[in-house]
């Protein structure tokens, strides 16, 4: 039986995102009381917001926490990998597909 999602240790593997990488939020993030100057329950990040990873930390010696700067909001919020998707990696995949030679077509 595999460990539950909250029991797996992410920091045994390399981080999924690197500083400077452009990312998009995959879900709404509300203040759980740890973000100063905002009310508990107030939206910090909305699904679809875009930002840049500024730094990588850890939590409970188990999870990576990505400090993401949300440019439109002017805030930096700690995010888990499951709450983000890379826009840079997606762009690289699209560019590679667009520049790869077409199979079956003679030059």
UniProtKB/TrEMBL annotation:
Domain of life assignment: Bacteria
One of the protein's GO biological processes: nitrogen fixation
Record key words, sorted: Nitrogen fixation, Plasmid
InterPro entries: Nitrogenase_MoFe_mat_NifZ (IPR007415)
Family: Belongs to the NifZ family.
Name of the molecule in the record: Nitrogen fixation protein NifZ
Organism: Rhizobium jaguaris
């Amino acid at each position: 039986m595999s460990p539950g999602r909250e029991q797996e240790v992410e920091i045994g593997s390399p981080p999924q995102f690197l500083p400077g990488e452009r990312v998009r939020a995959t879900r709404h993030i509300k203040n759980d009381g740890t973000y100063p100057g905002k009310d508990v329950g107030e939206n910090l990040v909305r699904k679809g917001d875009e930002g840049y990873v500024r730094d990588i930390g850890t939590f409970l010696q188990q999870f990576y926490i990505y400090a993401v700067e949300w440019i439109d909001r002017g805030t930096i919020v700690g995010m888990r990998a499951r709450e983000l998707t890379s826009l840079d990696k997606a762009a690289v995949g699209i560019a590679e597909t667009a520049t790869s030679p077409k199979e079956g077509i003679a030059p």
